[in-house]
């Protein structure tokens, strides 16, 4: 008895055009952004605190700091995904273009916000921080954030 082999139709490999279309679809999803010669999705979780970890980021100062950080982000084309200002530290989840190293992002945010807050609230700041011309502690935390669960956990 002769066996009859049933030929199952093989799936044809995708054409070059279909492959390119699939790649473009991946890169054009909502979570990526365009630069002049790149697509990117860079998110950083940033944390820093005032000098001596003083707890004065409340009320009017916290509200003004929130506005200042939003203005800086707008000027430098950062996107603030989440921000929480605690009395003694700040958490931010920001998306930045690849031209800025994480250390540069922190330098921009801390430097400009320190200068502006000291201009507006110098009397309040000098009660807690006696070192002239400073507001923030030297150190900071930065962590890169991937998509999905990690981003959602930091938002919460």
Please describe the topology of this protein.
Elements: H1 16-27, E1 33-34, E2 39-40, E3 43-48, H2 59-76, E4 79-85, E5 90-95, H3 102-128, E6 141-145, H4 149-155
Antiparallel strand pairs: 1-2, 3-5, 3-6, 4-5
Helix pairs in contact: 2-3
Approximately what portion of the residues adopt beta-strand conformation? 15-25%
What is the H/E string?
HEEEHEEHEH
| Total domain units | 1
Mean pLDDT: 83
Radius of gyration: 24 Å
**Overall SS class:** alpha+beta
Largest sheet: 4 strands, antiparallel
Helical residues, percent: 40-55%
User: What sort of overall outline do the alpha carbons produce when their principal axes are compared?
Assistant: elongated
Assign the CATH class.
Answer: Alpha Beta
CATH superfamily: Transposase IS200-like
Strand order of the largest sheet: 4-5-3-6
How far apart are the first and last residues' alpha carbons, in Å?
Answer: 69 Å
Please characterize this protein's 3D structure.
The protein has 4 helices and 6 strands, in the order H-E-E-E-H-E-E-H-E-H. It is of the alpha+beta class and 156 residues long. The chain has one domain: 2-Layer Sandwich (Alpha-Beta Plaits). The strands form 2 sheets. A 4-stranded antiparallel sheet has the order 4-5-3-6, with helices on both faces. A two-stranded antiparallel ribbon has the order 1-2. A hairpin with a 4-residue loop joins strand 1 and strand 2. Helix 2 (59-76) runs antiparallel to helix 3 (102-128). The radius of gyration is 24 Å and the shape is elongated. The termini are far apart.
């Amino acid at each position: 008895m002769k066996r009859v082999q049933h030929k199952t139709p093989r799936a044809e490999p995708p054409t070059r055009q279909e492959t390119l279309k699939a790649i473009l679809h991946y890169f054009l999803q909502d979570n990526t952004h365009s630069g002049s010669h790149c697509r990117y999705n860079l998110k950083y979780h940033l944390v820093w605190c005032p000098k001596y970890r003083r707890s004065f980021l409340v009320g009017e100062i916290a509200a003004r700091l929130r506005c200042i950080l939003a203005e800086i982000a707008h000027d430098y084309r950062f996107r603030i995904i989440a921000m929480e200002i605690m009395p003694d530290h700040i958490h931010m989840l920001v998306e930045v273009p690849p031209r800025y190293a994480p250390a540069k992002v922190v330098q921009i945010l801390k430097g400009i916000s320190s200068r502006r807050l000291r201009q507006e609230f110098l009397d309040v700041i000098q009660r807690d921080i006696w070192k002239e011309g400073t507001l923030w502690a030297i150190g900071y935390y930065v962590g890169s954030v991937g998509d999905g669960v990690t981003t959602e956990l930091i938002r919460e």
